[in-house]
Amino acid sequence: MTPLQSLLLGALQGITEFLPISSSGHLVLGEHFFSLDTSALKSFDVAVHMGTLLAILIYFWKDVWQMLKTFFELLTGKTKFDNPYAKLILYIVIGTIPAVIIGLLFEDWMDANFRNLKAVGTLMILVGITFYFGEMFYQKNYGSNLKAVVQKAVKKLKDFFGCDEGKGEIQGLTLRKAVIIGCAQALALLPGVSRSGSTIVAGLFQGIERSSAARFSFLLGIPAIFGAGILTFISGGSEILESVSYQSLIIGFVSSFAFGMLSVALLMQFLKKFSLNVFAVYLMIVGIITLIN
Fold first, then answer.
1. Does residue 171 register a pLDDT over 90?
2. Residue in 282, 151, 129 with CA at minimum distance from that of residue 207
3. Inter-residue contact 95 to 220 (CB < 8 Å)
4. Which sign, positive or negative, has the C-alpha torsion 264, 267, 271, 276?
5. I need a labelling partner for 144 at 20 to 30 A (CA). Which of 80, 167, 205, 229 fits?
């Protein structure tokens, strides 16, 4: 792997990790385009995923800091579980469990059977279709709801006057909804299924506003991305490090972090005004092209 390939693949990961178009699927496509052996690049995949993880931690540092602070306050009895951030911690823990179970039991099987162009292309098309119906369902059942309109108007007033966003609370999120979103995240272990996209659309199907669903999606991704990277490294050990040079790992990490910061910032603003339909069209087009070729 050349430095330029490392830079481009890192940028590809950074952009697609947050845009709901499947980072793992695009990495497979990018590695195939450069004629690289995808099965020997797990260390590089770990490095670029750690880069995007750092981007999440920095972009959402206020939420991360408050959750850490609340966690230690819970341990010392200084706060209770009615604290909004305590609830958010609980939702993230519960929502992470499905991905942990599926990952431990089926990760090798998924890599063996779905880390190829045909599977990636097919899954991209299916995810694109799901995005379209998710947006249609949300607009039909929640988009014109008077309560939702009022809440959106109040939120705009708060943004205009610089009011507090809600002290950790994600509007409309419940324990049941967190479990369902967590199950959607587990599906993203398949290359071609977007982690952010699957969790956001799962939120839409349950009436959670688009940008709020995205915020929970990225916070939910912190333990998932970190855990997946650690498990991959532990399972491969020194053999994983030997498959790619340290130079390529560093370049990929820095590139994915830089482009990840840009991507998450743009997406959070985009979802406040626009739907997922543009990504649905993109995924279906790329999926069809991939299958044809």
1. no
2. 151
3. yes
4. negative
5. 167
Tokens standing for residue 179: 């479990």
- Taking the CB of residue 224, how many other CB atoms lie within 10 A of it? 25
Residues 6+ apart with CB under 8 A from 162: none
Is the pLDDT at 91 greater than 90? The verdict is yes
- Residue percentage of the chain with pLDDT more than 70: 85
* pLDDT at position 161: 41
Please report, for the chain, the start and end positions of each structural domain, with discontinuous segments joined by +: 3-139+168-292
Q: Is residue 236's pLDDT more than 70?
A: no
Least confident of 32-41, 75-84, 131-140, 272-281: 32-41
Cβ(257)–Cβ(55) below 8 Å: yes
Query: Computed from CA positions of residues 143, 146, 147, 149, in that sequence, does the dihedral angle turn out positive or negative?
Result: positive
110 burial via Cβ count (<10 Å: 0-12, 13-18, 19+): middle
Contacts 24+ apart (CB under 8 A), 232-238: 232/42, 232/45, 232/46, 233/43, 233/46, 236/42, 236/43
Q: Of the segments 31-40, 54-63, 145-154, 230-239, which one has the largest average pLDDT value?
A: 54-63
The dihedral built from the CA positions of residue 244, 245, 250 and 255, taken in this order, carries a sign that is negative
The per-residue pLDDT for 199 is: 94
Q: CA-CA distance, 135 to 210, in Å (whole number)?
A: 9
Structure tokens at 46: 């770990």
What amino acid occupies position 287?
Answer: G
